[in-house]
Amino acid sequence: MTTGRQLISTLTADGQLTLELEEKDFPDPTGNQVLVKMEAAPINPSDLILMTTGVDLANADYSPGKVVAKVAPPLVAAQAGRHGKPQTVGNEGAGVVVAAGDGEMAQALMGQRVACVPGNAYSEYALADAMMCIPLGDHTCEEGASSFVNPMTSLGFVETAKREGNEAIIHAAAASNLGQMLNRICQEDDMGLVNVVRKKEQADLLKGQGAAHVVNSSDEDFEAQLVKAIADTGAFLGFDPIGGGRMTDTCLRSMERVAAAKLTEYSRYGSDQPKKMYIYGRLDMSPTILTPSYGFGWTVSGWLLMPFLNSCDMPTLIGMRQRVVSGLKTTFASSYKSRVSLEEMLTKDAMMDYAQMATGEKYLVTP
Amino acid sequence: MTTGRQLISTLTADGQLTLELEEKDFPDPTGNQVLVKMEAAPINPSDLILMTTGVDLANADYSPGKVVAKVAPPLVAAQAGRHGKPQTVGNEGAGVVVAAGDGEMAQALMGQRVACVPGNAYSEYALADAMMCIPLGDHTCEEGASSFVNPMTSLGFVETAKREGNEAIIHAAAASNLGQMLNRICQEDDMGLVNVVRKKEQADLLKGQGAAHVVNSSDEDFEAQLVKAIADTGAFLGFDPIGGGRMTDTCLRSMERVAAAKLTEYSRYGSDQPKKMYIYGRLDMSPTILTPSYGFGWTVSGWLLMPFLNSCDMPTLIGMRQRVVSGLKTTFASSYKSRVSLEEMLTKDAMMDYAQMATGEKYLVTP
After folding, report:
1. Which ipTM was obtained for this model?
2. For chain A, N or C: smaller number of CB within 10 Å?
3. What is d(CA A341, CA A39) in angstroms, rounded to the nearest whole number?
4. Residues B162, B119 within the same domain
5. Interface test with A, best of B75, B248, B288 (most A CBs within 10 A)
6. Is residue B142 domain-shared with residue B7, that is, in the same domain?
7. CATH number of the domain that B159 lies in?
């Protein structure tokens, strides 16, 4: 038995959120389980759903290792399934295996640095399935901390695009860590990529990393830029982590403008060209707005990592995992703005900052 | 050569719409073409795109056989492909074959009543492909006028649902002619159906036709009714002809509530249950609003008849067509509120009325 602190998130039906470091006894691992002493875990947007989404951080009650705050009513209602049920936080991270079950795979990892996806990565210790751990070899825990969510997601986009017969994709909020990975993967795989960013610095960053097509949504001629990039690449599939507002709509309308320009005869129903956008995040929690301006040949769909992985066969999964490990310092490298301890991640300054999910300003938790 | 009047719709780039009956010479049919003397043609919502959508009918200039009106700027822009290009109007109808090409199929139809899909059904005559004509036998032209769009669309919904592995579907605006057909088909095929209507009379109408599940969107407990009907039927696929506003959103959220109630463990990403809505019309031209309240396991997609038919193999198509002909007086019967001549369909009273696309108040044009 090992004792350590881990972060717990509890939401009550009346809308009070408590984030608290709690002492917990971790049982000795059995079978193919390993106990990992966590050393580094990124704060991804998907982790923030349990920590900051809809939370009144400005007026919260902060004390060492504890935050109590109010959550906006619609988001309280939307999370009815977790009312009163304590949730662990932190999808992924890396650390050192300090105990192992007697299974062969677990024993083989004893003493090694590994990346893992325990679901309670913001913790001093985590029990993980040896089969899901990635041995990091010479890589540091910081280098390996983000070796699951972003790498598998960006590889998943390219795999999804290929599977559905596409030669190019659009990516919104493209200067993120994930977006930079996607930019490198697309260059390696010869997949066309239209990067949509909202600042000139972000455009420069991606162009410096070899991006051929970058359009800036803050420019006055944004839609004209987007139409030209779609025409140049043939991108009729896109991935949008913003979700709310009009980004998905703008992409579909721009795709249709490219397709309609090729029509020889007018069709009141729009072009035959299938147009598709996947929403894989909700950086903007306002509703998605879809205008009737691109006929009926379109699809908007949610995209999530786990269902995608479940749809892959084993050779594909093993291939993706090997590609990630061999590219941790290059294709799949992540960068972090700040490093915080478990206590520091619960301070007002830190929370107000990482809750913004600003592009390229990711936090790393070092328990 | 035969001469007759047909309706022409012309939109200019500066937003002026002209609907006018024009004298036209119809050439003698060749090969497997037939010339049909049109006797009855329905005004479907899909026809109104070229006639009333976004059109200022209240302030239009009406003269016998001619209407000149202004179109709202966003809809002028959305139809750039037809600026200055005269369009014929009227997808489908029925009439008598008065001339035939020398092809065998065409000759066999000579003198017969047929249903056809000429694209210029609001006309005294129409040239049609014999292969696309349905011989009506003992049926009148009025009985056969709507034997393509609504029957094939409602059969297409059930075929789509089966193909995607569903046992039940939701249908919005369910008291329409199309909705009543769908209600009959679903009962024949043992496919679960949740009918969504907005008036008590419409609910009573469908219940009188054997519908097991009818929910009224005007009731205060609409969402609770919908959730219960989804739970009872297992309908996680829906078809929405409204398009704009929140109907599709409400259906997806209700599906998720049913799926979430079965979860044993909380998931921040929502349930694994795939939820899908097809938008097949735009009775409401305002934007579709999608709120972030049903995770990421959802899809919203356009649905159109012609791409669907193109996706079917020949035996399926022939089977659907035979089913329609044998059920023209029963399953696929249509009803009409008013009958108008070509001149009458261009009067202010008629246009202001059918432009509303009120449920169950369809017009029939009798050239």
Report:
1. 0.87
2. N
3. 10
4. no
5. B288
6. yes
7. 3.40.50.720
